[in-house]
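Q: Structure tokens for this one, please.
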Amino acid sequence: MAVCARLCGVGPSRGCRRRQQRRGPAETAAADSEPDTDPEEERIEAGAAALAGAGGGRSAGPSSPPRCSLLELPPELLVEIFASLPGTDLPSLAQVCTKFRRILHTDTIWRRRCREEYGVCENLRKLEITGVSCRDVYAKLLHRYRHILGLWQPDIGPYGGLLNVVVDGLFIIGWMYLPPHDPHVDDPMRFKPLFRIHLMERKSATVECMYGHRGPHNGHVQVVKKDEFSTKCNQTDHHRMSGGRQEEFRTWLREEWGRTLEDIFHEHMQELILMKFIYTSQYDNCLTYRRIYLPPSHPDDLIRPGLFKGTYGSHGLEIVMLSFHGKHARGTKITGDPNIPAGQQTVEIDLRHRIHLPDIESLRDFNELSRIVLEVREQVRQEQQQEGGPEDAEGLGQQSPQPCAEPPAEQAKGPGDGGAEAAAEPPAQSGQGQPFVLPVGVSSRNEDYPRTCRMCFYGTGLIAGHGFTSPERTPGVFVLFDEDRFGFIWLELKSFSLYSRVQAAFRNADAPSPQAFEEMLKNIQSLAS
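A: Here is the predicted structure, written as tokens:
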């Protein structure tokens, strides 16, 4: 059977493969009255016939089946074939001949591509009212802005952020995700739109800034380079409020913290909040974003990696990415603060060194916990010296939980000795936990932490002064509560951070490979440094 029969399983044809390799879909349009073939097609077919006649005289044998052209297939069958091809291949296909160009103007083809490639499940037929075709939606909106879909971190100095750009109906929307109000770490994430892109007319897509409280207004999106794009608001007056900066600050404070400045009694926290407002508001939604990925998971991971919300003293809640790297786990800040900026690694957990805590009564003594942890640290140092590596050579754990101005936190905690079998315990077995209470003198922003834990490991956390001055890693305890929650006790700060999994489903956020994820971590840390 001829080439075409092998390609589409319908029937033989002449010259089909050569034309398919050269043609595609974006430049198609012709009348039904035009002939199905043109001189170029006839030339190709004649060449194919000549080739068939050559080569030892075998072509003219009586057993040769009759040939027919792909162009002779019914249009409805060609529509089905073309609709199953990737949209990026269709522009080349449209160059084959006038018949293909005409067929590629069929909206059925582009409706299917919009649905299968970008998940557009809207009734695209209603676009006909506005004179916009499915082909316009695909070419001028979805395909054009495909490079900005995914998960991003904005460059807002030390504060960072989390943006997910998704196809939402007939819009492309950039959703900024915010942690819940401090200290409610188990509450769901908050989100708000920063920009949207849609197709209002056939000419081009419209970009609108959604920042502020006066509705959508003119904006601009530009792809700077691979894995980086920027947004710009062209009408920043829409961000201003009639009451001036004071009204803007009060509104921002209610949205960011869920309270008024009078409700925040700690003077240091008031200073940090005011500093963040002044710093972030100057950008006016004119930002540069860099792509980030969710961490890949492996069957032997302690728990499923991902994004977590964590308490960081006076800085409130911040977003941390937990990832596993062999015998170590690392927490990288996606949002940060003036002490430890976004991109730095807040904690590193050494999964080779399990910490077996004493009974609860002994654990209530903070000095006893310090003694146990410092013994493990000395053991780690000796092992590193024997291996010829510098101390904390594998540690990337950088981040700063700020000292809390809260009264000393709850009492001690004492998980039992889970033994080596607990280290290999499947993630879902949370029913075998031991009682847990924080040592006396350890402060916690959230007193509603779990009272049972699964296991503990030695770890280090990054602390620093304002402006990321004098950074240093200090010893601590990683406490695994369950599949969705863990904690970290900062010995030097005598404080406790509680982390809860971000349950939101982010689209287009998976790393193309483990190497791409590792490279991304290096990039965001180098930018933060």
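A few notes: The chain has 14 helices and 19 strands. Residues 149 and 166 are 6 Å apart (CA to CA).
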